[in-house]
Amino acid sequence: MKLVSDTLFTWDDLQAKLNNELLSNLGNFINRVLSFIAKPPGQGYGSIIPDARTAESHPLTKALREKVGKHVEQYIEAMEKVKLKQGLKTAMSLSSEGNAYLQESQFWKLYKEDQPSCSIVMRTAVGLVHLLACLLEPFIPSFSVEKTERVEELRQQYAGSQADRRARAEADAVKTAEQLKKTKISDGKKQKPTKSAADFKAKATTVSEISITRLDIRVRRIIKARKHPDADSLYVEEIDVGESEPRTVVSGLVKYIPLEEMQDRLVCVLCNLKPASMRGIKSHAMVLAASNCNHTKVKLVEPPKSAIVGERVTFPGFTGEPDDVLNPKKKVWETLQVDLHSDANLVACYKDMIH
Questions:
Q1: What is the C-alpha separation between 239 and 247, in angstroms, rounded?
Q2: At the N or C end, where does the chain have fewer CB atoms within 10 A?
Q3: What's the pLDDT tens digit per position in 121-140?
Q4: In this structure, what DSSP letter does residue 27 have?
Q5: Which of 276, 247, 346 is nearest to 304 (CA)?
Q6: Using an 8 Å Cβ cutoff, are 332 and 214 in contact?
Q7: The pTM of the whole model exceeds 0.70
């Protein structure tokens, strides 16, 4: 890679890049777009990219198109001059524009109130995901190949009319049934009863339902906070969670919130994350914060002034008990996180529900 100066590598910088750019920026944008498209009809688009015939007249989309065009020109110029670092930076800035586009459009509200506009936003966002895969191919080839191959699979799967797709599905089902008839499995043991399709469907429905009620978000008090001895970007907080001993929590907030503002204050804490070690100190929860689209400003999520320490944060219309500990493999937090945001008055919301 051609650089104009020496490169200084630090683990803290790598961690910041992974968290702030790959995860919070690029990963967040792609996950928000594709997970919403994949939701079943009534909640999303059933994995079918919607039509958007009037996109040319949509002001927000028109403004994004102009920004994207300028970024692509800058990217091409940088790559032709072998300024790879500048090219990568320009490509990553496109996902920031995508996040800002989604946030400004408030697509979760449009889906309920203005479906044609929501279709324009989501189709445009999917196009931006594909563009990102192309621009990032020189830097993350496996990512780009995986995304483009998946797009091609979906294009083939949903090609043709609904009748064509139904006919293909029926043909595949007949072919699978014939193959199963020819298959004989015998290991000398008593075979378990075969589950019906309804059983599998019920199980799949149960597994796919991820509700905000599974998060144990509570009002807690930071007793004291200090800087991590081995990481310049991390705080270590002692937080009163109503247990016999305070919990130790590690937060990457040093660059955004002064240490004095982290002392003796109420915060919202996600209490049922699986403990994880961060630079040698185990963190037993997560302090919730919100940022702008470019992740240049970060603020703690403050409980209402009337909130009581220990009180659980809930949202209207959602009832249920939280998991004891969230299973990291199930990606519950990652799935729900994309629908957590703040409104125009900087009030924390889940989808369009104020906590």
A1: 5
A2: N
A3: 999 999 999 998 888 888 77
A4: I
A5: 346
A6: yes
A7: no
